[in-house]
Amino acid sequence: MSLSVPGQEGTRPPLTRRRRRGKREGHPLSPYLYLLPFMALFAVFVVYPVGYGLWVSLHRWDLLAETRPFVGLEYYRNLFDPETPQSQFFWNSMKNTGFFTLVSVPLLIGTALGLALLLHRPIFGRALFRSVFFLPGILTVSVMGILWRWMFDNQIGLVNAVRSDLFGLPPVPFLSSEGLAWVPVIVGTVWWTIGFNMTLYLAALGNISPSYYEAADIDGATSWAKFRFITWPLLGPVTLFVFVTTVLASFQLFGQTLVITGGGPNRTTQSVMQYITEEAFANNQFSSASAMAFLFGLAMLVFTYLQFRIMARDARGGEEG
Amino acid sequence: MAAPSTRASAAPQTRAGRPPGRFRLPRDLPRFALLCVLAVIFLAPVYWMLATSVKPEVDVISTPTQWVPARPTLENYREVLTSPDGNILRWMWNSFFVATVFTVLHVALCALTAYPLARMRFPGREAIFWFILGSMMVPGIVTLIPTYLMMIRFDWINSFHALIWPGLAGAFGVFLLRQFFLSIPRELEEAARLDGASSLQVLRHVILPLSIPSLVTLGVFAFMGSWNNFIWPTFVITDLDKLTLPVGVNTFSQRYVTDYGKLMASTAIASIPVLVAYLLAQRYLIEGLSTTGLKE
Fold first, then answer.
1. Residue B12 resides in a domain
2. B231 and chain A: CB distance < 8 Å anywhere?
3. What pTM value is reported for the model?
4. ipTM beyond 0.90?
5. What is the chain B residue with the closest CA to A205?
6. pLDDT in tens, B92-111
7. I need a labelling partner for A16 at 20 to 30 A (CA). Which of A116, A206, B117, B155 fits?
8. How far is CA B112 from CA B100, B115, B224, in A?
9. How many independent structural domains does chain B possess?
10. Omega of the bond prior to A136 within 30 degrees of 0, cis?
C-alpha cells in the first residue's frame, strides 16, 4: 500500500536523504574544529620554537642585552674553528657520544635479542623472568645513575667489593679513570634499557609461524641454521626499528653520564646533550648552544628520517588494513 | 599422519605469542639455569640498594664488605624524609600531579586530533597528518633552548605550566590513536550515524569505548614519559619545592655525594611507588609495547 499523500510525496524522501547525508558528513568545518586545540599547541611549542631557535642561532642573543644583533653564521663557524673552546668541547662531546653509541648499540641489541631467544620457548617461570628483566627499565634515570655510581664506587662499590673480598684483587677506580669511566655508564645502560628491546623481540618472535621451524626440522636443520636462515631474516623489520630507536636514544645520552660520572673525568664522558645544556644554562650562551643543537640535529637526521620512514610505512599499512 | 604438525601450525597463537610446546626438564635445564643466573645479576643492584639503605653509615663503608646488613636500621630513611635539603614526598607529589594532568590532557588531545585524521574526509587531511608526523624528525634538543626562552617570556620558569603544555602536542600519540581508529570497522560508525548521532557522539560512544586498550597504552606511555622526564625539568624548575622526583633525587646525589646510605634510602623511596604501579600495570606496559612497537 502506498502512502501517496499529495503534496508530501515529492518533499519527504529528499528531506530524509538530505538530512541523513548532512549528519553523516557533518559540518564541513568540524574536522578543523577537532584539530584546532592540537594544532594550536603544535604551532606554539613545536613549529615556532624550530624557527625561533634558528633565529637565536643567527643572532647574538643575550638575556640582559637590549639589542640582539644579527651575526649570520658566526656561531656555526666557531664550531669549525679549532681555536675556539666551543669547537674543542663540542667535538669532544660528539666524539664521546659517538663512542658511546658505537659500543652500546650492538650491545643493547645483542643482549636484548639473546634474552628474548632464551625466554621465547616455554620455560618455568617465564612471566617472572620477563618481569625481572624489564624491571630496571621502570626506574627513573637519576635513581639508575646513583645506583650504578654506587655499584662502581672507586673503593667500596659492589664491583670492587666482589673483586677484593672474593678474588683478593685491588680496587679499580672506575669513576675517576679515563676510559674505564665508560664501564659503569654502559653496563648501567644495558641493565636499564634491555627490557624494552627484549619485549619487542619477544613479540616479534611470537609472530613467526612455527611451520617454518617444522619444515626446517624435516630437513634436519641445526639450531644455528634455523636462527640464521629463519629467525634472523624474519626479525629484520623489528631489528631495524630497534636499531633506529636505540641509536637515537644513545645519541641523546644525557642523564646516565650526568649522574654517574658528571661528564668526567676531564670531560671524557661528557655527552653532546650535556655540553649543549652547559653552554646554554651555565654559560648563558644561548646562541652558541642553539647553533650546536641545530648541527647535532642535522647529524641525527639520517636516523630521525629512518624513524619517520618506519612510522610512515606503518601509517600507510594502517590505511590499507 | 601429517595431522599433528598441520594442527600445530594452524592453531592460533596464544596470548603474547607463546609458541606451542612445553617446558621439558632435562632438555631445558641449562637454559633455565642460565636465566636464573641472569635474573640474580639483574636483581643484584636492587638488592644492594635496599641492603645499603638499611645500614648505619659505618657499616656501609666497612671492610670486609657486609653482604647482609648486620644491624638493620631505618635511620637513613628517617633522615631522607626529614631532610632540610628538600622534601622527597613533595617531589613525588609534584611528579604525580604533573604526570596525571599531562596524561589526561595528552590522551584527550590526541584522540580529538586522531579522530578526524582517521575518519573524516576534508581538504588538507593528508598534508596535516604528514606535517604532524614529520615533526618526529625534530629532536628535542633543537626545541629545548628556544622553548626555555619562551618560558622566560611566559613567566613559566618554576611553574608546572612549563612541565605540562610544551610537550602536549606530541606526534606519536596522534599516530598511535589514528592507527587504532583506522582499524575500527566503519560499519559501526555508519550505523550510529544512521541513528542520527553527531560526530562527537560517534567519537564518545563508538570510537572511544572500542579504543580503550590503545588509550590505556598511550596513557601509560604518556605518564611514564612525564614522570621520567629529566632534561627539561632540570633547567626549567630550580625552586626546591617545585622539583619533580627525578630531578629532586639528583639534587640529593649532588649534595650527599658519597653518603650512600642516605642516597640509597632516597632512591628506594623514589622507586617504591613506581614498583607498585609496575606490579599492578605491567600487563598494559608490556603488551602495549609489544603491540605498538611495530606493525607486522
1. no
2. yes
3. 0.88
4. no
5. B17
6. 999 999 999 999 999 999 99
7. B117
8. 18, 6, 21
9. 2
10. no
